[in-house]
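Encode chain A's predicted structure.
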Amino acid sequence: MRPINKKIDDLLKQNNNYTNGNFGLYFNKFVEINDNGKDQFKPDKDYHYTNLKNKYDTIKNNNHLLNLLKQKHSDQKKYLEMYEKISFKIYEQSFKLKSPLIVGIGETNPGEVGMVFDRTLGIPYIPASSIKGVTRFAHLLDLLKTGVPDDKIKTDKDGKKYFDRNEDWTKVVELFGGDKKNNKGEKESCMGQVIFLDAYPDKAPELNIDIMNPHYVKYYEDKKTPPADYCEPRPIKFLTVAKGETFIFRFIAPNDDLFGYSKKALEKALFEEGIGAKTAV
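Encoded structure for chain A:
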């Protein structure tokens, strides 16, 4: 059953109409319910994700959706060209997934595991904020790897060494934004000069059902049951973008210097650190 208005339920059952729908809305608004014949209405999680995948598969090759996705890429290209005309440096590169992808695993939704979908297209994408965050992280790691100048290393009250990531030499504020001292010695917030765009797939991507399998559920729930092999695992299903799908990354930088830092950090992030959830796996 679906705990919704009957007219909406009737509409959803008409596959010919629903093939034009927004899967992201379906994912974020509906959940399959099973009463098990005991009037105990609970989400049927096993069926829920199987049903979600089936719904997505009926939508993903719809010509209307594919045309909208093409228009999205066209709009982004025009945006890049606008900046290129005023001598900005533009980056546009396609990357293929070497493992499944899930972004927004903590997003609120009726199921147990979230995922980010474009608000209007209803397909998976990688938000610019996520790309910017992981690129910034990779840039900071590269600073540690290449070596922090001795005169930039400081010591806190506990004797731990650190460096101020917002100082000019790190390029962090220039690239990504942050707090910076003005001529009066006061902190002020600055906007980064590099513009990251959302990364969209080159086509409506394939979604698969994946699984994580916590083994020590009772320990996590009450801490009274010691974690050991006698604990029963509890499989949790969730959707992922399939391995092998291609996403297109784009950003804009005002000069060669910041373009070089951004390109190096972005590709380090994608090739070495990974993006999205479950990257350690």
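The chain has a mean pLDDT of 87.
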